[in-house]
Amino acid sequence: MTEETPVAAETQESIAEALAKGKLKRVRRILRDLSAAETAELLEQLDEDQQQIVWDQIGDVEEPAILELLDPTLAERLQVNSDDNQLEALLDSEDETDISPIAIVREALEAGRFKRALKVFALLHPSQAAGLLESLPPGERSSIWSRLDSARAGQILVHLREEVAASLALEMSDAELLEAARQLDLDDLVDLIQALPFGPGRQLLLSMDVKKRQQLADMLSYPEDSAGGLMNIDHISVRADVKVGSVLRYLRLLEDLPDHTDKLMVVDRENRYQGVLRLSRLVTSMADELVRDVMDAEFKPLDVLMSSQEVARQFEDLDMLSAAVVSEDGVLLGRITVDDVMDSIRDDSERAIMGMAGLDDEADMFAPILTSTRRRSVWLGCNLITAFLAASVIGQFQGALEQIVALAVLMPVVASMGGIAGSQTLTLVIRGLALGQVDTGNLRVLLGKELGIGTLNGVLWALLVATVAIIWFGDLGIGWVIGLAILINLVCAVLAGLLIPLILRRFGIDPALAGSMVLMAVTDVVGFSSFLGLATLFLI
Amino acid sequence: MTEETPVAAETQESIAEALAKGKLKRVRRILRDLSAAETAELLEQLDEDQQQIVWDQIGDVEEPAILELLDPTLAERLQVNSDDNQLEALLDSEDETDISPIAIVREALEAGRFKRALKVFALLHPSQAAGLLESLPPGERSSIWSRLDSARAGQILVHLREEVAASLALEMSDAELLEAARQLDLDDLVDLIQALPFGPGRQLLLSMDVKKRQQLADMLSYPEDSAGGLMNIDHISVRADVKVGSVLRYLRLLEDLPDHTDKLMVVDRENRYQGVLRLSRLVTSMADELVRDVMDAEFKPLDVLMSSQEVARQFEDLDMLSAAVVSEDGVLLGRITVDDVMDSIRDDSERAIMGMAGLDDEADMFAPILTSTRRRSVWLGCNLITAFLAASVIGQFQGALEQIVALAVLMPVVASMGGIAGSQTLTLVIRGLALGQVDTGNLRVLLGKELGIGTLNGVLWALLVATVAIIWFGDLGIGWVIGLAILINLVCAVLAGLLIPLILRRFGIDPALAGSMVLMAVTDVVGFSSFLGLATLFLI
């Protein structure tokens, strides 16, 4: 302790007061104006609990200077107490009432304690770290990102949604990005380049060495959602005419096999695919057996242009862990592993659910408000068209509405019941189409069944709604008009739910995306026009 | 050819005519009335193409008798041509314009050609066969099912949706079901027993031998959606103090390893989990190394009571192929393989999408109409309540509606715009909650952002809709009333989209299921009441 700077009594008092009220921000504001010596002195005057709390408010930058000035036992205690084990326990906990990693990181950042925030990231696996990073507002995200080392950044980068990955990659210098990219598997690198805007992506590609650049260019030539887009080229291939013993010796030379190696690929002299040799078979074979005799030649390879949906279905149907990818003429190009397939299944399902609300699953949850507004307005605009379509139908019946106000009160009921009934059929058919369980082969049976359900439910709810309407408005006529309209709308809704996805697909539009909006337009138009039309005919 | 029965000229003519018109049903009807000898003679009089077509219309039962009477070369040609290769090519084809397996099977069944239909099933993998079986109407499904052998039936059974599996299992005799069950892995058997109604399930359990029954009872004691429910007990465990060479010798004795064995489990004397020994490490290790030195002791086991969602997330995050399952005190109970995890991910995503429309993903697409009607009516009933809620809100403003009919025309626009804007936020928040990317740690940031988007979009669409309304009805007042109502509804919708899932979750209700219906109620009520309320205040 080289100098003694007495801390003004009022500073001490205000700290104590802020602590008593739990106002940590004020504590930090006060601390910011103190010198290291003043802070050290202040710390020593506090009781143990207070010491720890105040210590947690001190930024990484100031820490060393203050530690030096502190009583050594106190310094040690503060450093030991702070974090690590406690942090690990917090992150491992599955208890939902505990403080979440998001809250831990954000509080740490707010307190200027970057070390603690970074420690959270260090304790997580890359994909978890990516998820956490996406959960932070952009400012905090960048400040963490700029402090991660390149190797770690690379691993995290491939797990981020495209938009987030692109924006964070662009925050890095060319050298950092190249360093991060160097750590990646080829398939991940391909994904990264595809996520980047054209310029920086090309830049990154060009900064690779010639061999890697050639491999990357090959892999980039396949569509992202094809087997070629999912494959990696880290497979190990052996020839059919060697002995198991030689294969084992060769593997021992490699020391470490690529992740997810459950089988070796067997190829001929021209690198044409012959079959696979499973490790589980390899370890149960005798050293003098030939690969040809223990390999599985029946195991079918995947065509490089096969769609990723089809790849996923094959993996699921055949319970595969990895599969070979071959060119049209049977040359082995690479392999696909189940972990990438699993990601692709998850992505597809997320895309479907987000797509139904007109959202992009690769978008950043914290994209700038203006960007998000613009994106979401597209879907609202489509909806407005269908809404005005419905309004114009209602507009045709202004005469009826003027005379019988009950029509205006009840008409949304007719439209909404149709919407729900239709969406049930729609959902069933969309799933059936996706699974290949609905096609022209059984469409008529399904149509019959759905019409039956539509009619039965139509009658059931027509009776109920009619009864309520009659009681409510004391008018028999309105009862049977609304009942009939509901029956008509439910039958039409079921029909629309069945046909819309088929028609959309014929036009190359994904029924999961546009289906429900088109359906809603149909059920609104049919619902309003049948109800108001019948009322005009019979009640006026 | 023992007898010559001249085929009547008119029969020949009508066959030729039916063939020319492509009316195969009529061909079959005519053939049914012919004797074997007449059919044989008829066949010999046709040209090659026609022969094949007519031959394909002949049922399995009649085939042998007719073949005997035919010219041997013709008989051979007909048998070679018929099916197999062509069938395989058809099934392999990815061309959507080709005839689908569903259509092939149904046509074959209709033509009474069971052999052909069964051949399709024989060419498919069990899970594909299960999908195809589900795509058939119940009658055809049963007739195929009764002709499958027990081993095959067992494999298919575990891939069927619960309802279909249960109904087909009940069609089998006890002996057949037991025979089919004998082929199954324990985890699949557990699933089957859980899918069966209590009586037959218990019956099946009791007919197993003592050891298996005990194992099954153990596994059945874990919740279906827990690690225990996903695990199998076919793992291979070794001790840490043996040499790699001994392990390899032991594996060779086993000859065949269980499917998806990528690692062996290392346990101590009390069967407590110590770590894993990867096959990829095993094959690269020297024979005299100890398991202890090459095993991965850091690889964390899964707790038997961990939820299946959490299991899936761990598999995805850590890219695992299999993982050990341990009891609370660390005893190794079994292992979970990635194929079961993948199924569980797919099931979850299907359940979510179907659930949003109030459908059960395990239900039979071709369940009896009455059953389906009853199930779907639940969702329609819930919707009716919200629809009447909206109607009652409108009912409060009958006075305004009587005076200004334009209100009735435009009010659905206000409600529907709110519904869409709200569902976008709702979808985003539900995903965020599921991924753990939204919690109290970042809720306020998200709230700010969503409110910003809601306000911006509100202003945008308010202006547009107001303009259209003013032009349509030539009234300034209605323009600014609808504009203001849309702004209010969009902001409320965004708020509701954010809060509803949080509130539902607090009450233990899955927001993915009930969220959109609750949201719709809110946006309808707010939309109608703000629009009609403002109109009452300012326009009347």
UniProtKB/TrEMBL annotation, chains A, B:
Metal-binding in keyword set: yes
Membrane spanning stretches: 378-398, 404-430, 451-474, 480-504, 516-539
Gene3D superfamilies assigned: CBS-domain, MgtE N-terminal domain-like, SLC41 divalent cation transporters, integral membrane domain
Primary localization class, coarse: membrane
Record-annotated CBS domain positions: 231-294
Subcellular localization, as worded in the UniProt entry: Cell membrane; Membrane
Family matches, as InterPro entries: CBS_dom, CBS_dom_sf, Mg_transptr_MgtE_intracell_dom, MgtE_N_sf, MgtE_transporter, SLC41_membr_dom, SLC41_membr_dom_sf
SUPFAM superfamilies: CBS-domain pair, MgtE membrane domain-like, MgtE N-terminal domain-like
This protein's record includes keyword Glycoprotein: no
Highest taxon in the source lineage: Bacteria
Family stated for the protein in its record: Belongs to the SLC41A transporter family.
Name of this protein: Magnesium transporter MgtE
Species in which this protein is naturally found: Halopseudomonas formosensis
Source species taxonomy: Bacteria, Pseudomonadati, Pseudomonadota, Gammaproteobacteria, Pseudomonadales
Gene name in the database record: mgtE
